[in-house]
Design a protein that fits this description.
Length: 382
Amino acid sequence: MPVSDESDAERDGTEDWFERALADSDDAPTESGDDAAAESRDDAATESEADATPAEPSDAASVADEWEMLEGAADGETSDHDADGEATDSDDEGGAIDEGDGLFDDDFGAALEGADMPSVGDDAGPDGFSDVDFGLEGADEPDFDEAVDSELPRLDLGIDGLDRMIQGGVPERSLIVAMGSAGTGKTTFGLQFLAHGLANGEKAVFITLEESRERVINSATEKGYAFDEYVAEDRLAVVDVDPIEMANSLTSIKNELPTLVEEFDASRLVLDSVSLLEMMYEDRATRRNEIYDFTRSLKEAGVTAVLTSEAAEETPYASRYGIVEYLTDAVFVLQYVRPDDFRETRLAIEIQKIRDANHSREKKPYEITSEGISVYQQANLF
């Protein structure tokens, strides 16, 4: 940022970055049911055993008839008469159940006769399922181009292939993080996100903690994004802030950021990168609280914001300090994929989460070209 004459605010260790940002822009553009059923079965079995027990027969012939009936019941056969000579239905254990009092009027096979069963085709095996086609072919490539019925306003990121992996787009006013190690294209992700909105008549803000204002504009222009023209037209504000200065005056920035966005009428914002801001706080609790307050201020500003973040050394699926991915609405993981056979190293992108949006969970290759990031949604890594 331009250096102005020393003021009282500077001597106090803070600067009015908000005024300078606007000045820069002006200058350059149920278990109970189961228990009851079990109890009914026990009661029925008890009754049947009582009925089936022979009651002191008067002669040998009666005894023989009674034992013949009991042996047949023990073998699982259905008895036509009970001990008193009346017609009955019996269960599998030989217990007689009076008609109308049983748990089921029909046996299990009879109950299935009228049920609607899925058609398994002529090639089905003995089990009826061996050659069934469950329609899983091509399931790893769902059609995410289909329009989604949602009341939430949505927008595209402006990245080829990646937008097709998100059904209906990212909900507006979402807080997004692009996370990856050095050289994976995090800054390009942010530039491309803003360029797409600017090309469609939106206004945007780019806050950089890593590069100078001029470097950001030149880098975007080289990729074919007319950032210099957008600045001249007062549709883009590029603000470079020293990370130490930002940490010292973060409270004022958090309070003034919604005002900057509102006065500039911006709908998209990029902060590159949040990791440098996190590094300013040695105490873990302080870091967490400050970053939480900062992300909340972005949500209150009413913009769709992209934060870039360094990935942890141990895994590409976590940020350096493990905070920002839990505070954001969407997480995009950019990473290197190095095969064991030492073939060419590839870049791959994965959508870790998007709140209120359906999305692919596949890992897809991408390239960083002179025009930005291009994701090959229909391709596999190797």
